[in-house]
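stage 2 :: seqdesign
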């Protein structure tokens, strides 16, 4: 989402919802642990470990995939905070007694990697892999937000509570803001003591992890949601873990590269996969959602290029409702989903498409709406 992910995962929620943490304070008293994880099989020797709740309910943390090889496990992403990482480790140990050999980061957004401290403790010999760009981002300014993330969440909770005082708030928005208010103390605790765990091994094009049963290829297909997105492909089982190149049902943009993203989605689409695991959301067995995302990005890019050519400013573009078709295509009539769509995707992608059209550089951790 962004992980969430630059510095904003959900501008609507005070422009601070991104993703992260790494220590392990206890969850504040809530009826249910919002960081709980469940496991489901994707194919032989491959599992998905996912947040038990919907991907559009806070906290917005990424999927984790486990690939079982003959002598150990390859895990893709690690959860978005220490507590989440501990949940993931427990789920993995319930699956297999084999050690984690490799932990792969799909990108630098903290909701996909700030649980890695639990992996370091459980499997100290595991090698962390990412693209070189992801490691650069995790060791520089784009990761600075983790210093104040817990405090930022408190501001979001205050904002949610103010929204709940409105008498005419649509019911779906009321439920969404109420969840933020209810689990807010748990999120502040979970995101208040964070540390990044950069990769031990980096690559530019691909890394192959051979195995007779479940070989895994970790590939960089190009810039998309970030400048260092990686995917993990298991050719025997025809399963691909796509990271936040694909987020469902509401896409996430942040500091993305719209033309490169379209190209990368085309490369993903050309892969003969039986299952695609998105960075957030349910496993996909067809190309329908990818096609919808490609179509939306192409329409937005075309419209922005036309407006830039006519001299329209970004401020004036952001005031328009010209992308209501895309809003409805992904979020329907649900007011909370529409709010997330505006915050997670439309505001950022319009800004980034404008930057691309005007030749302005997109900077990780800073841009995105």
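stage 2 :: out
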């Amino acid at each position: 989402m962004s992980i969430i992910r630059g510095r904003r995962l959900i501008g609507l929620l005070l422009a601070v919802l991104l993703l992260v943490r790494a220590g392990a304070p206890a969850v504040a008293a809530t009826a249910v642990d919002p960081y709980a994880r469940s496991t489901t099989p994707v194919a032989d020797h491959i599992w998905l470990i996912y947040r038990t709740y919907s991907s559009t309910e806070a906290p917005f943390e990424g999927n984790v995939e486990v690939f079982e090889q003959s002598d150990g496990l390859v895990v893709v992403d690690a959860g978005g905070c220490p507590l989440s990482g501990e949940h993931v480790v427990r789920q993995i140990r319930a699956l297999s007694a084999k050690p984690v050999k490799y932990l792969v980061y799909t990108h630098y957004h903290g909701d996909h990697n700030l649980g890695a401290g639990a992996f370091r403790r459980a499997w100290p010999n595991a090698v962390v892999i990412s693209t070189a760009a992801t490691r650069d981002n995790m060791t520089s300014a784009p990761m600075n937000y983790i210093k104040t993330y817990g405090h930022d969440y408190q501001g979001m909770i205050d904002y949610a509570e103010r929204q709940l005082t409105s008498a005419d708030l649509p019911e779906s928005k009321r439920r969404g803001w109420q969840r933020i208010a209810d689990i807010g103390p748990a999120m502040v605790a979970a995101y208040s003591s964070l540390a990044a765990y950069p990769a031990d091994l980096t690559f530019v094009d691909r890394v192959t992890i051979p195995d007779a049963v479940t070989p895994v290829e970790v590939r960089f297909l190009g810039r998309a949601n970030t400048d260092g997105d990686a995917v993990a492909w298991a050719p025997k089982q025809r399963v691909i873990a796509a990271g936040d190149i694909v987020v469902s049902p509401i896409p996430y943009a942040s500091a993305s590269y719209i033309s490169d993203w379209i190209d990368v989605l085309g490369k993903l689409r050309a892969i003969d996969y039986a299952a695609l695991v998105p960075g957030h959301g349910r496993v996909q067995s067809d190309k329908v959602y990818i096609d919808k995302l490609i179509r939306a990005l192409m329409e937005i890019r075309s419209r922005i290029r036309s407006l830039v050519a006519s001299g329209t400013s970004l401020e004036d573009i952001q005031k328009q409702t010209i992308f209501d078709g895309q809003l409805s295509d992904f979020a329907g009539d649900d007011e909370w989903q529409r709010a997330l769509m505006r915050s997670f995707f439309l505001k950022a992608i319009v800004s980034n498409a404008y930057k691309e059209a005007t030749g302005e550089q997109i900077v990780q951790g800073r841009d995105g709406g």
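stage 3 :: structure notes
- The CA atoms of residues 216 and 234 lie 5 Å apart.
- DSSP finds ten helices and twelve strands in the chain.
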